[in-house]
Amino acid sequence: MHNAKPLPSYLVQRYQGWKATTYAENKTWYRRLAEEGQRPRAMVISCCDSRVHVTSIFGADQGEFFIHRNIANLVPPYEPDGDHHGTSAAVEYAVTALKVAHIVVMGHSGCGGVEGCHDMCSGKAPELEEKSSFVGRWMDILRPGYEKVKDIADESERKRALEKQAVLTSLENLMSFPFVASAVETGDLSVHGVWNDIGDGSLEHYLPTEDGFKVV
Amino acid sequence: MHNAKPLPSYLVQRYQGWKATTYAENKTWYRRLAEEGQRPRAMVISCCDSRVHVTSIFGADQGEFFIHRNIANLVPPYEPDGDHHGTSAAVEYAVTALKVAHIVVMGHSGCGGVEGCHDMCSGKAPELEEKSSFVGRWMDILRPGYEKVKDIADESERKRALEKQAVLTSLENLMSFPFVASAVETGDLSVHGVWNDIGDGSLEHYLPTEDGFKVV
Amino acid sequence: MHNAKPLPSYLVQRYQGWKATTYAENKTWYRRLAEEGQRPRAMVISCCDSRVHVTSIFGADQGEFFIHRNIANLVPPYEPDGDHHGTSAAVEYAVTALKVAHIVVMGHSGCGGVEGCHDMCSGKAPELEEKSSFVGRWMDILRPGYEKVKDIADESERKRALEKQAVLTSLENLMSFPFVASAVETGDLSVHGVWNDIGDGSLEHYLPTEDGFKVV
Amino acid sequence: MHNAKPLPSYLVQRYQGWKATTYAENKTWYRRLAEEGQRPRAMVISCCDSRVHVTSIFGADQGEFFIHRNIANLVPPYEPDGDHHGTSAAVEYAVTALKVAHIVVMGHSGCGGVEGCHDMCSGKAPELEEKSSFVGRWMDILRPGYEKVKDIADESERKRALEKQAVLTSLENLMSFPFVASAVETGDLSVHGVWNDIGDGSLEHYLPTEDGFKVV
């Protein structure tokens, strides 16, 4: 790999700051985690977006949460076709090997991936329709969600509704995995959907009894 | 989604702690990020493992890092076949839409996904060879890396070498994406490989001049 | 105390979560408790084990339960020899100063202290026999209980029986305290023994009429 | 044990409430904790007082905290004399068997045990001087602390200072245990002192650099 570069110095500086403080404060715990392995209580599926504060929100930087982050926190449907499926592999490992008790799917406001899906489905982003667009093909997962919200008149409301559909679509697709469905049925696993407003810091969770999201 | 449950109460408490402290201290900044969108300086690709401290290590919880986390921090080769490719979509979005300046691939010690690959390739985990194993098919990406380390006699040394191969394989596969290769060529993007020892907190980065990993 | 450190930051976050929620919701009550003093209805004696959910099980975080937690929920016999006796002091304060109406001794499954006693008494843990072993000398309290269960053939059944003997031994030792015996005699105090299965969440209480533990 | 009574029905009701909610919500996690054993990250030493919210404050009802509660959160000095020492046994088990990373000693406002010590040392509670007083003999541990605060003119200020001395005395006595001192020296263990105001919910931690308690 002749193209790789040394770590940029601003990251080296931050790393050294972490080593001298957080690591120093917690080293016994980190050593134990290294020796005894992880035992996460929950899996969190969230977006790659740099403004999503998943570890911070749940104090998650302590060996408790198995975290998968992808564009728009999407879970594709169950497709055991022998191809590479990174998200499905993460879900499989969390449920069958780590036996997590909860899966939390976490959406957020201002999601660029969801916005791309919105524009693609409403004809405003033809480049995302191209076969070679990885973002477009990934956001295809959310097309059925777009159908449910397309009649909302206000655009910003529509996009927000689509962000929540991304969470619901993932929850539904999760249930298409046989090992997820059976763990949910036996009560060994529960699934949860939340949506975070980045600007005002609020958090909403999906309540099936009300078929909607309510502030926590 | 009648199967979803409300957010577990222990997570609600932690969220409220974040809201009352970190959010309260940074709300002006979070509001600006919400209004103006993210502008991350780097993309980090790391493992889902609950013991990997990516945000903490790089002080990354502030809108600066676009973070993709999957099993064993792998990037698959470029395959624009129209299927769902979550990792490729994340890389495409980071490089072409967000125009990040750096991509850091971060491996770590004690990686369960890498260990699975090791066991599969050495014949000790036939269940991972099944077509329906998402973890097995995902770890296929690392098979060429196994070939390079399989003659190392000591098992724990061999696994550690394979963890580093996971980083190098991802760096190589990244270069197979035309938009990555061209951004690297023009100097708009640099790629970096690091490996974190969870127990002792050390960080090594790949130095092409020495064709090996050195402590930062 | 030059060796003490500031509170770890992950505990600070959790505390702030409590302050913003539970405290905020109950502050009038907490202020009254602070001004008027505690008036607990019962004393609970349980194990230090992190998996014992005493406050949670009895909704006990509201000023109602005076809680003593030690290794294996043991009460030593009455020994007014002028030495430091932490458990005896807690019982004395609960009964004579606070005049609690109930004392509940709560044992649990998988108790490490009881297992230590089992191993010590069966010759498998000679290090616990040393005079300097605080755990060994503390578990001496349960030696008479071991004599009653040692002939149970199945090891896991034997340990479970010993966990229940820990509850019964404590109930018996409680009656050796003159102020406990007299309060029980006048009907001002009742004592209760329960045992909690951590994994399945069941609770059994001791019924003297059946001389055994029955599920609640 | 012919004197024991069945569990009072108000406690049965609360237990059933917990079983139907908190247990049901967390049963997978509780089962895993039962099967795999506890792995607490910290030991907390706090008072038996019913108004001390230790589990609540730190979200501690989740298998993470090994909790010892006695009168006035005191740790006696190291005395390996072969007698029963419940607190010393708890500390020994936490440090040598569980290898906790932190010990947090937590004092609180309005502590009845500390008040008893105050009254005993200032001649106002001769009954606590009797050899047979378990509370008096337990509070002897805090006599050196009284000497340090006895000249504070205001009584309520003096008692509050004595509550903080109880935390500092425990921290000092902890260091007299060889296994604690050596774990602190190697950096495997850190000790922390905090004091909670029950009425206003504030929390102070001891900062050795300032030789005093500061609000968190």
From TrEMBL, chains A, B, C, D:
Parts forming coiled coils: none
GO process terms (BP): carbon utilization
EC identifiers of the protein: 4.2.1.1
CDD domains for this protein: beta_CA_cladeB (cd00884)
Cofactor, free-text remark: Binds 1 zinc ion per subunit.
Reaction(s) the record says it catalyses: hydrogencarbonate + H(+) = CO2 + H2O
SUPFAM superfamilies on file: beta-carbonic anhydrase, cab
SMART domains recorded: Pro_CA
Broad EC category: lyase
InterPro entries xrefs: Beta_CA_cladeB, Carbonic_anhydrase, Carbonic_anhydrase_CS, Carbonic_anhydrase_sf
Ligand binding (Zn(2+)): C47, D49, H108, C111
GO-annotated molecular function: carbonate dehydratase activity; zinc ion binding
Family per similarity comment: Belongs to the beta-class carbonic anhydrase family.
Function: Reversible hydration of carbon dioxide.
Name of the protein in its database record: Carbonic anhydrase
Organism of origin: Thalassovita gelatinovora (Thalassobius gelatinovorus)
The organism's taxonomic lineage, starting at the top: Bacteria, Pseudomonadati, Pseudomonadota, Alphaproteobacteria, Rhodobacterales
